[in-house]
Amino acid sequence: MIQAIDVCKSFDGRLVLDNISAQFEPGKTNLIIGQSGSGKTVLLKSLVGLHQIDSGRIMYGDICFNQSSLKEKRQIRQEMGMIFQGGALLDASTVEENVRFPLDLFTDMSTKEKKERVEFCLCRVNIQDANTKFPSELSGGMVKRVAIARAIVMNPKYLFCDEPNSGLDPKTSVMIDNLIKEITEEYNITTIVNTHDMNSVMEIGDTIIFIHHGKKWWQGTKDDILHSDNKELERFVFASAMAKKVKSATCVQHINATDVGK
Fold this sequence. Notes:
Blueprint: E1 2-11, E2 14-24, E3 29-33, H1 40-48, E4 55-60, E5 63-64, H2 70-77, E6 80-83, H3 95-106, H4 111-124, H5 140-152, E7 158-162, H6 170-187, E8 190-194, H7 198-204, E9 207-212, E10 215-220, H8 222-225, H9 231-261
Parallel strand pairs: 3-8, 3-9, 6-7, 7-8
Antiparallel strand pairs: 1-2, 1-4, 4-5, 9-10
Helix pairs in contact: 3-4, 3-5, 4-5, 5-6, 6-7
GO molecular function, one term: ATP binding
Keywords: ATP-binding, Nucleotide-binding, Transport
Protein name: Methionine ABC transporter ATP-binding protein
């Protein structure tokens, strides 16, 4: 379990996280939502230690991560998996090399053991016969699946996902959502997802935290959203739904225009 307790973070005198407290449970998909600039990305980066918080505590079990020694932080980080917005694969490395990278960096496993672990993780995300391909040869959905395979190759206790559906079509987005949820439940991982995709929220949101102007404005489940009387949350949900419709309509117009040009 991960806890944020009274977390504050400022940049150049501007308060970005204002006394945020939250609890993220293992075996569940814990979602952080909010408008651009609300502070949700800063919160995610603070949880993994990419930002040093000004005050408060970030707890991994009974260990205060932000006050830990470098050795303790290193040990915890080896239990983390990260899925970045663009996949963040190494362009000059093959699929197999990308997934194996954490094993090369942090373990003393033999070459045979590494290969077996990579194969297992690639099969788990339903990627076969792509070991020697480079990221430029993959579709957007395949890039995200390779990123997930790399994120779980070290058997993480904690999984952090920053906009995992960014740039994907609706069908592929659902597939990535389902994969993240399946892996979370299967391995009892504490998964935290930073997203603005309401489809993801309603599909896999076990626990949802809504950040508004740097404050934790609302917390509940995907079912609670439907009955919430929180005005700011309602506006966010409505705006997100409208943005989704506009995006879908734009895609249809683009397809029609392409057909006309043929």
